[in-house]
Amino acid sequence: MSITPEAITTVLEKGRAAGLAASGGKNADYIPYLASVPSDLFGIAVVTADGQVFKTGDADFAFAIESISKVFTLALVMEKIGAEAVHKKVGADPTGLPFNSVIALELHGGRPLSPLVNAGAIATTSLVPGDSADACWKAILDCQSRFAGRQISLSDEVNRSEQTTNFHNRAIAWLLYSAGTCYSDPMQAVDVYTRQCSTLVTTIELATMGATLAAGGINPVSKERVIAASNTGPILAEMAMEGLYTASGDWAFNVGLPGKSGVGGGLLAVVPGELAIAAFSPPLDPAGNSVRGLAAVAAVAKALDRNLFQPH
Ligand code: GLN
After folding, report:
1. What is the separation of C-alpha 55 from the centre of its chain, rounded to a whole number of angstroms?
2. Prediction pTM value
3. CB–CB of 59/266 below 8 Å?
4. Which residues lie with the beta carbon below 6 Å from any ligand 1 atom?
5. CATH code reported for the domain at 71-197
6. N or C: which end of the chain has fewer CB within 10 A?
7. Domain boundaries of the chain, sorted by first residue
C-alpha cells in the first residue's frame, strides 16, 4: 500500500488524538523496572510492506518488548521445526484466561493452547534448538534483530528486574515439565524466555517487525527474507486468536486485525500484505494491554479503513 505523506499525517494525528483522549490504566509493576518508565511517553509508527516508515510522538524511545517477543520466538521455532509441529506441541486456541494463568494449564492437561500466553511461550522457547541457554538466546536475539532490520539489544536492567522476580513463570515451567510439555530444562526455558522479554525496541522497530509479517516474511526495510511466507499466515492467526489475551475477542470485533501486546506498553497490529501499526504507552488496562495503544492503533486502522473482516 502506498500512502502519501499528507494522508499519513492526518491518520497519525487521529491516532494520537484518540490515544490522548483515552485515560486511565497503570504501568505494570510486578516487574519493578516497568513501574519506573515515565507513564506519559506515547509513540505511534506505521511501516508499510513496501518500506515506507511514518511516526509520531515518542516513536524513538526504546522500551521493553515483553510479550510481543512471543511472536518472534514462535516464528523462529516454526522455521526450525515447522508450523504444524508447533501447533501440535503448543496449540493455537485462546485460553480465555489471563496471560500468566496456571488454571488454563490445569484445565487442559498441561497443554498450553497458545504460544502467545506465558505457558505456551515458555514451551515454545523450550523448542528453540541449541545445546545451551546462550546458544538458544543467540538464535532468538538474532531473529528479533532480523525482524527489526537492526541489531536489537538486551537491557541488563530489565533482565535483572525480571530474572529476580519471575517466580510465577518458573512455577509455570515446572508444571509444563511435569506434563511433558516443556521440551528443554525448564529453568533454562524460563531463563531464555525472560531474556527474550527483556530486549528494548522502539515503536518504529516494532512496526518494522510487524511489517515483515505483513510482507510475507521479507523485511521491507532491510529487504532480507526473515521467515518463509508460508509461516506468516499461521503466526498472524495465532495473533488474532490470543494476541491481546482476554481482550482478543473485543479487539477482533472492534478492530479486526491480528495484534500483539506486551506489558511494557507496546502494541502491534498487522494488515496482511499491506502494513503494520505499532504504538507504545506504558499504562495498561486490567487485561495487560496499553490503554492509549489500544485507542491509537484502533483509530489508525479505522482512518486507513483496514479491518480484515470488513473489506474496504
Ligand atoms: N515478561 C512478562 C511476563 O512473563 C511478559 C508478560 C506480558 O507482556 N504480557 O510476565
Report:
1. 19
2. 0.97
3. no
4. 66-67, 99-100, 118, 162, 169, 197, 262-263, 288
5. 3.40.710.10
6. C
7. 5-66+199-303, 71-197
- Does the interface ipTM go beyond 0.95? yes
Ligand 1 probe mutation, 99, 242, 248, most atoms within 8 A of CB: 99
- How many C-beta atoms surround the C-beta of residue 166 within 10 A? 20
CATH of domain 5-66+199-303: 3.40.710.10
Q: Which atom of ligand 1 is nearest to the CA of 162?
A: 1
Is 117 annotated as ligand-binding? Answer: no
Shortest-distance Cα residue to atom 6 of ligand 1: 67
Per-residue confidence in pLDDT tens, the chain, 312 aa: 667 878 888 999 999 999 999 999 999 999 999 999 999 999 999 999 999 999 999 999 999 999 999 999 999 999 999 999 999 999 999 999 999 999 999 999 999 999 999 999 999 999 999 999 999 999 999 999 999 999 999 999 999 999 999 999 999 999 999 999 999 999 999 999 999 999 999 999 999 999 999 999 999 999 999 999 999 999 999 999 999 999 999 999 999 999 999 999 999 999 999 999 999 999 999 999 999 999 999 999 999 999 999 988
Atom of ligand 1 nearest to the CA of 169: 4
- List Cα–Cα distances, 256 to 106, 151, 288, in angstroms: 30, 31, 19
d(CA 184, CA 291): 36
